[in-house]
Structure formats: structure tokens, C-alpha cells
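Can you please make up a protein's amino acid sequence together with its fold in C-alpha cell form to help me picture the idea?
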Amino acid sequence: MVSDTNKLKEQTEEEILLELRDVEMYFGKVCALTGVNLKIRKGEIHSVIGPNGAGKTVMMNIINGLYRPQKGDIFFKGKRINRIRPYQRAKMGMARTFQKVEVFGGMTVLDNIRLGRHTHYTSGIFSGSVYAGKTRREEIKHRTFIEEEIIDLLEIESIRDHPVGMLPYGLQKRVELGRALALEPDLLILDEPLAGLNLEEVEDMARFILDVNEEKRWKVTCLLVEHDMGVVMDLSDHVFVLNFGNTIIDGTPKEVQDNPEVIKAYLGEEDLYATRR
């Protein structure tokens, strides 16, 4: 009986991709996060919601290494990563899109996406200076992946050679998502991917998120920060709610919808009704 319990515990721990333990973050005398605990399991879409100033972006910056918490620990794939830099976390399989689009406007769609592939290149500076042999084969392999997998998934074949800065905002969001996917991440952090999009673009982006999470080719675990409650409740396996840096609840969409503290702090009666229609 004891061995079965331990086995079940080990299996459960193996399922955890990212964990925050008692994380706290201060800016001067302002406490942005207080004792935050979060477990994200492989294969799920775990959303983070809360009013403006709740600490959501601070939490994302801690997870991908832009900030180092004053207290608590962050574990990724079972390894403590408090002191690991953002580029090292990217190599471990962590990718992110940002609240405001961060693309290279003067570069083409294809070149922007290729930048996200850099951690997979093995050619050195000398072999890379000569486009032949191993370097050429490697370049063809990565370019084929981008063109046949990412560009096809995001339906941007017709604009692949366009400068990103000349594209509408909604397409720039797709390019940024494509660049994150080029890393082939285990964890994809999506910081308000629907912000600034019209209804049709929201539906497309929600479909892309579901595809990368559910399709066998991808199976990417997603950490989603979003204000669109309808989309959050439709897409998420679990929803984590912050308010002034404090955790209100981490539960299923149904549990979050029914929680009176969430209704009071964030959703409101009208928004709650809209998510249930």
C-alpha cells in the first residue's frame, strides 16, 4: 500500500512541468507577489487572471527569468531555476510572447520566425561562415520545419516574405507566436495574446493556441495570461486568480466562476453571466 502511494506521488511529480513555491516579489515597499504557489502540469492550458496591477506580468517575468524573486523558488522540469538566465531557460524549453508585440519590423516574417530557432543550431562560427556540408543541411532542416510546420499552422504563407513592420497588428501577433513556436518549447508563456485583436482575430488566435496544445505534433503546455474571460473559460484546464499579489484561487474554470471572491475582485456579475452563456 505504501509503495503504491509513493509510486502515485512520483507519477504526479513527474507530471509537473513548472512549479512556484512561496514566491514573493517586492519593489521597494510595494509587494507585487505574496507567497504565490502554482503547479502547472504537462499538457494543460493553465490561465492566470486578475485585475490590472494584480501581479500577473511580474509573475511571468519571474518565470522566464527577467526578475529574480526575493523569496521562494521556481522549478522547471524538476530543476530549481532561480538563478538561471532567460536565454538558458529558453534552451531548457521555455518560450514567451509579450503583452506588447516584440518583433523586428524591418525583417521579413520568415526571418523573424527563424530567430526563434537559434537554440537548435549546432554549427560553429567557422563552419557557419561557409554555406556547405553540415551547415547547409542544418539550415535546410530548420527552414523546412519553419515553412512546413509553423507557417502552415499559422496560415501566413502569403506574407512570409513581407516586412513585419508593414503588417496589421493581428498578423504581427501571429509572427510573434511563430517565433516562440520555432523554439519547440515544452512551456509556452502567452502574455495577453488576444489584446488589441478584433473578434475574427481572437477566434483565430484561440484556435492556434488549442492546436499547439492538443495536436500530436506539438503538445505544448501553455501558461496563458488573458483578460478575455470567455476565451479563458473555454480554453483552460485550470485558472489561477491573483488580486494585489495574493492568490484567490487556483482551480477549474467552474470553480473559479463560482468563487464569490473572484466575482467580487474581478469578474463581476455581468462578466460572470457572460462566461456562462
